[in-house]
Design goal:
With 224 residues, the chain is an all-alpha fold. It is built from eight helices and no strands. The protein is 73% helix and 0% strand. The two termini are 14 Å apart.
C-alpha cells in the first residue's frame, strides 16, 4: 500500500488536470488544484530549510571539506529568515510587507544578494568564453559553420559590421553583415529553438504520461 496509494493519487489528479484542460465545466477544478499545489509548496519550503540546516550542521560536526563555508551559510540563512519573519528593521512594523522600501530585509537583498549575484554572473563570462573557444574550433564542417555564424552575429552587433559592408548596394543588402546577422537569428536560429521547444514539449508529455500511468516510479524512491 506504500506505493499503491501514491500511484492512485497521482493517476487521479493527473487525469483530472488533463480533463480540466479539454472540458470547460472542469476548468475551475484545475484552478482549485493549482491552489492546492501552492499550499503543498509551502511545506516544501519548510522541508528545504530543514534539509539545509541538517546538511550543514552535519558538515560542521564532522569537520568535512570547506566546513567554514557552512558557518556562513547557516548564519546567513538564520539571520535573513529571522529578519524576514519578524520584520526586524522594518519601518512599517510587523504589519508591513518584508519588501517594503527602507526595510532591512530589502536592503540585504539590494546591497548583499544582488551584488553577489552580479559577481557570480560576471565570473561566468570567463567560463562562457572558455567554452566558446573550445566549441568554435573549426575541427569539422559543423564546427566551421558554427564558427562562421558566431563571427557574423558578433560582427553584425557592432558598428564595424556596417562600416565594413555598408558599401554593398541595397539590391544586395542581404550580404551586409548586420542583415546577415538578423537573418541567422530569425531563420536558422529560430528554427533550431523551436525544434528544441517541440522536443522538450514531447518529452514533458511522454514523462507525464509515464508518471500518470505508473510506469515511471522513481519519484517513489525506487525503480520498481
Amino acid at each position: 500500500m506504500k506505493r499503491e496509494i501514491p500511484l492512485l493519487i497521482t493517476f487521479g489528479i493527473g487525469t483530472l488536470l488533463i480533463l480540466s484542460v479539454f472540458i470547460p465545466p472542469m476548468e475551475t477544478l484545475g484552478e482549485d488544484f493549482t491552489v492546492f499545489f501552492d499550499i503543498i509548496a509551502v511545506f516544501a519550503f519548510f522541508l528545504g530549510g530543514g534539509n539545509l540546516l541538517r546538511v550543514h550542521v552535519n558538515k560542521l560536526q564532522n569537520r568535512k571539506t570547506d566546513w567554514p563555508f557552512s558557518i556562513v551559510t547557516l548564519v546567513g540563512f538564520v539571520v535573513v529568515l529571522a529578519i524576514g519573519m519578524f520584520k526586524l528593521g522594518n519601518p512599517g512594523g510587523i504589519a508591513a510587507q518584508p519588501t517594503a522600501a527602507g526595510s532591512l530585509f530589502q536592503e540585504i537583498f539590494d546591497y548583499v544578494l544582488v551584488p553577489l549575484g552580479a559577481t557570480m554572473y560576471s565570473l561566468l563570462a570567463f567560463f562562457v568564453a572558455s567554452a566558446s573557444y573550445r566549441a568554435f574550433r573549426a575541427k569539422n564542417r559543423e564546427a566551421t559553420i558554427l564558427l562562421i555564424s558566431a563571427f557574423i552575429i558578433l560582427l553584425g552587433r557592432t558598428p564595424f559590421g556596417m562600416m565594413a559592408t555598408g558599401w554593398i548596394p541595397e539590391s544586395f543588402d542581404i550580404l551586409q553583415v548586420p542583415n546577415m546577422a538578423v537573418w541567422i537569428m530569425n531563420s536558422p536560429n529560430l528554427a533550431g529553438q523551436r525544434a528544441i521547444l517541440i522536443g522538450i514539449g514531447l518529452g514533458v508529455v511522454s514523462m507525464s504520461l509515464r508518471i500518470i500511468l505508473g510506469i515511471e516510479r522513481t519519484y517513489l524512491g525506487g525503480d520498481d
